[in-house]
Structures are given as C-alpha cells and as structure tokens.
Amino acid sequence: MKFQDYYQKLINSKEYQTFTKENKKAYPCSGLFIIDRQKGKIDVNFDYYLPDTKKIFSFKIDKSIEGIPVENVDPTIPEKLGMNYSFDLATYEKLILEKIAEEKINGTLQKILFSLQKTKGKDYLVTTCFLSNLGLLKVQIDIQQNKIILFEKKSFFDMIRVIKGNKKEEKEKDN
Fold it and tell me: What is the domain range of residue 109?
C-alpha cells in the first residue's frame, strides 16, 4: 500500500498522459485512499485541479485507470500537492491501531479514509476512521514527521446532532 506504487501506476497510464497533454496547467490537489478492512480492498483516487476551468478531474486507480470530472462545490482554489512521497499507508494504519489501543477505544477498525491534502503550505493525511460501534476517529498525520498530530474520537450520533443542529439553525434564519 505504498503511495509511490499507486502514483506510478497513474503517471504511466495512457489516460493520464493524454490528460496532461491536453491540460498542461493541471496540478495534483488531493489523493484519496479508502481502506476497507472488512472487504480487504483499497480504493484510490488522485485529483487534479484545472486552473483554466476551475474544475477538478479525478483518476480512479483500479485494475485500470478511469478519469472522472468532479463537481467542485468549494470555491476555494486548492493548493498544489507534492507527489514525491514514499510513505506506506500500512505504516499509518499501524500507528492508528496503536493509538486506539493506547487510548483504550472500543470497537474494531472497519474502514479508513486517508485524504492527502495541502493546508497552509504543508501536506497532511487527513484521516477518518470508522469503527464497528458507530464510532469515528478524526486523525491528522504529519507525513514529513510520520506522526499523528491530531486524534479525536467522535460518535456517529455526534455527527447526526451536528447535522440536525445545522438544519435547525437554518430554519431559524429563514424565519
């Protein structure tokens, strides 16, 4: 589950090479790695920002490479990501499992969403973990230092309360 293996598969593909010829100003803006521990599979996407059209184009990495235009709802222009990384997602999965044991958190880790992003000029893995007991973990990993810098346990029900609370606030604003 090494980053470079997935990235090399992308850049060596005919789809990517055609894309870069047609979109010379496009740059990488995010990577998404979804590890489904129950199914034993991983889904990988690399996103590219197209400055001329202010849109995002995503490449799904599987047995083949599939390019997909993405509806960009956020008007913020994403920062350019560095792609010269050698990290292994299995290493970060192990760090998360160690932290779960250290914090004595109940539940089995079922799914991990690693999102490679640049925030304030620094690349991070922003991670959401789903636990068997409807628990969620918000984890932020500094990939330069290979360490967890944020670790928060949430409940799925906390998320529902936030959504309901936001809808209630919207109704109050409308009245």
Answer: 3-170
Distance, in Å, from the CA atom of 59 to the CA atom of 12, rounded to the nearest integer, reads: 13
**What rounded mean pLDDT belongs to the chain?**
87
Half-sphere exposure of 135 (CA within 13 A, CB side): 15
104-136 residue pLDDT tens: 998 899 999 999 998 888 888 999 999 988 889
| CA-based max dimension of the chain | 55
Q: Rounded to 5 degrees, what angle do the CA atoms 122, 124, 125 make?
A: 170
Total number of domains constituting the chain:
1
Residue of 110, 119, 108, 111 lying closest to 150 (CA atoms): 119
> pTM for this structure?
0.84
As to burial, measured by CB atoms within 10 angstroms (0-12 exposed, 13-18 middle, 19+ buried), residue 115 is middle
13 domain residue, yes or no:
yes
Name the token pair of 122.
């620094």
